[in-house]
């Protein structure tokens, strides 16, 4: 009797339970980092690859594996509640969705490139020229901002070969290291925009989904913050503790523990990656010694 009740309870519970549906790229440059981020947020995902859908075992969420170009439409249509895409795709697709968090990976830029041998002498050169691209919306926005009247030739892939086969005089494509442009005899002449992976969300969704997103965002922020900070432990002469504490205020104030040598203390605190080396120089000049630097896994304020 009780067993039957339990089975029925579980069944109805699952029926009414709302899962947060998260769309990520099925394969490509965004996939590994998207899965890594969700795992760092504590998600236990059964198996990503070769599946269209995966259930998160320890959070009311499921992962949908899709082509990155399709994710904005799925999020707009509420098939997925949130998604991870490149900012370039977000701008290009112009869907009714919103950016809710920048994720800091898949960093790249969109640039205009022309043949190395071209007599390019400034942005005006592009006027009345043909530009090949897979991103017509982004290119048109750039042309409008610069009062240029160029022709956009939309192609879906291998944009970098367009000038070589006489399809266009310039291209606009994603650039990361620049080696693709170089090996195709092209030079980068203008940056159109920069891009990184972002989390996007549907503009209208149920309250319980919003709460789940808030929970996920809390975790993402803790993971991102941890990546941007380092944990420092150092030894300092007692008479420098005040000045060192000013250099290393940490999350509230540094932890100070006396050493066996009564003139010295151990001090630990958190320092932001951006100011790391400047702070190390200041600490050294204040007499700090034996500085240990440790990575932080999660950082919750
Ligand atoms: O199959 P699906 O449609 O899902 O994937 P996709 O082939 O459209 O996208 P994918 O996986 O190539 O890229 C996904 C996202 O990663 C892009 O939308 C960008 O936001 C981001 N990203 C970051 C990049 C690059 N770096 C990148 N280097 N996307 C593409 N490239 C390509 C670029 O198109 C060019 O061919 O790499 C080449 C340039 O690289 P470098 O290093 O030679 O300059
Ligand atoms: Zn794509």
What key phrases describe this protein's structure?
301 residues; alpha/beta; D-Maltodextrin-Binding Protein, domain 2; Alpha-Beta Plaits; six-stranded mixed β-sheet; binds phosphoribosyl ATP; binds zinc ion
Task: Give a written overview of the molecule.
The two termini are 48 Å apart. It is built from 9 helices and 15 strands. The chain has a 6-stranded mixed sheet. It has a 5-stranded mixed sheet with strand order 8-7-9-6-10. 30% of the residues lie in helices and 31% in strands. The longest helix is centred in the C-terminal third of the chain and has 21 residues, at 207-227. It has 3 domains: 2-103 and 197-226, Periplasmic binding protein-like II (D-Maltodextrin-Binding Protein, domain 2, 3-Layer(aba) Sandwich), CATH 3.40.190; 108-195, D-Maltodextrin-Binding Protein, domain 2 (3-Layer(aba) Sandwich), CATH 3.40.190; 229-295, Alpha-Beta Plaits (2-Layer Sandwich). The chain has 301 residues and is an alpha/beta fold. Zinc ion is lined by residues 67-69.
